Amino acid sequence: MSELDRRRAWQVAAAVPDPEIPVVTVADLGILRDVRIENGVAVAQVTPTYIGCPATLAIELAVEAALRDAGFEARVERVMSPPWTTDWITEEGREKLRAYGIAPPVQGGNSTRALFGETAAPCPRCGSDDTERVSEFGSTPCKALYRCRACKEPFDYFKCL
C-alpha cells in the first residue's frame, strides 16, 4: 500500500468522534497517535485519556470499524507511553469544546497548579474569568462542574491531565 493509502487511513481514523463529547474527534483530542500501513493492514495507535476511561474500548472499536468500513483491513493498538495529556488537544479541538459549552483545559496541564485544581476556568459562554468550581466531577470523570458568576450559567471544565 502507498503513502496515499496511509494518509487516507489517517483521515478516516481521525474523523471518528469521541463517544462522550461527539463534537470533537479522536484527532482533535490528540488520542490518535499514528496510523500506518503494515503488511496491508491499517494499524491505528490510540492512547486513552486516562487508564480508567470508560470510553477507551468504544473508541478503539469505532476507529477499527471506520477503517474497515473504508475498505481497510484494520487493527488498533493501545499505546500507553508516553501518557496522554490535555496539552495534546488541538487548537481546533479546544475551540470545538468551547463552542459546545465545555471550557477547554488550560495549556500546561501537567503543572502542579493545574493538577491540584487551582485552575481558573473561563466561562465558555460569556468568557468571564469570574467562575467557581462547584464539584470536582462533572458529567464525566474527566470534567469538573463550574458555575459562572457573571452569566450564572453552569458549565463543564475539561480537567487538566
TrEMBL record:
Residues annotated as domain MIP18 family-like: 15-76
Gene3D superfamilies: Fe-S cluster assembly (FSCA)
InterPro entries the record matches: Fe-S_Maturation_MIP18, FSCA_dom_sf, MIP18-like, PaaD-like, Zn_ribbon_PaaD
Domain PaaD zinc beta ribbon: 111-159
One Pfam family from the record: Zn_ribbon_PaaD
Protein name in UniProt: Ring-1,2-phenylacetyl-CoA epoxidase subunit PaaD
Species this protein is from: Oceanicella actignis
Source organism phylogeny: Bacteria, Pseudomonadati, Pseudomonadota, Alphaproteobacteria, Rhodobacterales
